[in-house]
């Protein structure tokens, strides 16, 4: 089902980029190296990843490397994921659009944790585009002000796309009033939800829900 549906959607849309927002494997957190390899081979069979690798961005989720619960993060699992899918933090360009791939789990700080790693990975390809999309498995705009303010001021995303949940949501963050608002959850309250991504006051985070048990 997944292979056929993905193939038809990909052929119809012909996307420039294909984004996988984490939780790629059922039990990547507990899988042995051989099991993980078989998971990857199944993933490749469904999505033809190795044939499309240059147009795919794959970020890790808690079912792949941990990070949902305090103490379950294991560097060796992140390294294994990196061996198959590349750097955990990376910058991609498509015309005037930038995709910033991140790996900030539920317990990591931006200022004290990921800031240096992000700057280190992007120093050779500086953040210069007209429009920037940040990709992260876990939510970013519902965290503390201490996290959100420097994150937004330094990385200046126009839009954030996240995975993790099985429910569609749209969250907005008001940079002037320093408040977060839930605009939609599971369904859009009106037939069309219009958001202005050109303005600077509000930043939006959209949860892309899974199409199966795992994303």
UniProtKB/TrEMBL annotation:
Provide this UniProt record's keywords sorted from A to Z.
Membrane, Transmembrane, Transmembrane helix
Q: Does the keyword Transmembrane apply?
A: yes
Residue span(s) of domain Calcineurin-like phosphoesterase: 2-167
GO cellular component terms? Answer: endoplasmic reticulum; membrane
Quote the Gene3D superfamilies the UniProt record gives.
3.60.21.10
Query: Where does this polypeptide localize?
Result: Membrane
Q: Name one Pfam family in it.
A: Metallophos
> From the Swiss-Prot or TrEMBL record, what is one GO molecular function term?
hydrolase activity
* Biological process, per Gene Ontology: GPI anchor biosynthetic process
Which residue windows are transmembrane per the record?
Answer: none
Membrane topology type, per the record? Answer: Multi-pass membrane protein
Primary localisation category: membrane
Q: What is this protein called?
A: Calcineurin-like phosphoesterase domain-containing protein
């Amino acid at each position: 089902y997944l292979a056929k549906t993905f193939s038809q959607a990909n052929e119809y849309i012909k996307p420039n980029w294909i984004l996988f927002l984490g939780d790629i494997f059922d039990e990547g957190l507990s899988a042995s190296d051989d099991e993980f390899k078989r998971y990857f081979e199944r993933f490749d069979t469904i999505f033809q990843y190795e044939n499309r690798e240059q147009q795919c961005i794959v970020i890790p989720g808690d079912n792949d490397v941990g990070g949902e619960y305090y103490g379950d993060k294991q560097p060796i699992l992140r390294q294994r994921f990196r061996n198959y899918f590349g750097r955990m933090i990376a910058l991609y360009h498509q015309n005037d659009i930038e995709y910033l791939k991140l790996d900030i789990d539920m317990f990591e700080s931006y200022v004290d944790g990921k800031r240096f790693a992000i700057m280190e990975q992007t120093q050779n390809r500086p953040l210069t585009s007209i429009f920037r999309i940040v990709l992260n498995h876990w939510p970013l705009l519902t965290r503390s002000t201490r996290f959100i303010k420097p994150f937004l001021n330094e990385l200046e995303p126009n839009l954030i796309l996240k995975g993790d949940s099985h429910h569609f949501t749209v969250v907005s963050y008001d940079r002037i009033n320093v408040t977060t608002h839930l605009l939609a959850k599971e369904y859009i309250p009106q037939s069309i939800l219009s958001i202005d991504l050109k303005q600077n006051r509000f930043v939006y985070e959209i949860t892309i829900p899974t199409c199966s048990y795992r994303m």
